[in-house]
Amino acid sequence: MKFRMAENSVFAVLLRSQWWISFVVAAGVVVVTQSLVPVEYRNLASMGAFPFVVIGCIAFARQWREPGEKESETLLAQARAMAWPAFEAALRRGFEREGRQVRPATGGADLLLEGKGGPTLVSARRWKAARHGEEAVQALAKAMRAQDVGRGAYVALGELTPQAAKLAREEGIEVLGGAALVKLLRA
């Protein structure tokens, strides 16, 4: 049985927040317990801050490995400047680092990924566009149906139109842009 944390629980929110916030919450718990709990139970009550310290340590470890804002901007600027063959090679290396096998795809997709949860079709050729419309996402969805692939990924440096974003959600297409793309392209 695999346990999954509720998406909006206090601990899940703290894991997505800056690491130091968990330590501030832990300190707040200690201050409140030290001031409100009878003297003989203060130390025991202060142990209620321990889970927040653990979450803070986990968040710190995760954020330590994440690229900084300046590195992210640099990588995205480099991606904008790349020609398609260089960008495709960078994507291939990123997916292979994740343990996936990368093959060329046909139809409305550019790459076929195998491994890690089954096959995934990736559409990336329009990555430089400032706005991505419904047609491009629809082409990927059509390719997914034609090739009987349940997962898709659309690579975009720019934003998707509201209709394209809605279609991506409905079709189960993951949009790789911003932080997700930086993580993939990072050597």
Automatic annotation (TrEMBL):
InterPro entries: Restrct_endonuc-II-like (IPR011335), Restrct_endonuc_IV_Mrr (IPR007560). The chain crosses the membrane at residues 20-37, 43-61. GO terms for biological process: DNA restriction-modification system. Residues 80-185 form the Restriction endonuclease type IV Mrr domain. Keywords: Endonuclease, Hydrolase, Membrane, Nuclease, Transmembrane, Transmembrane helix. One of its GO terms (molecular function) is endonuclease activity. Pfam families: Mrr_cat. This is Restriction endonuclease.
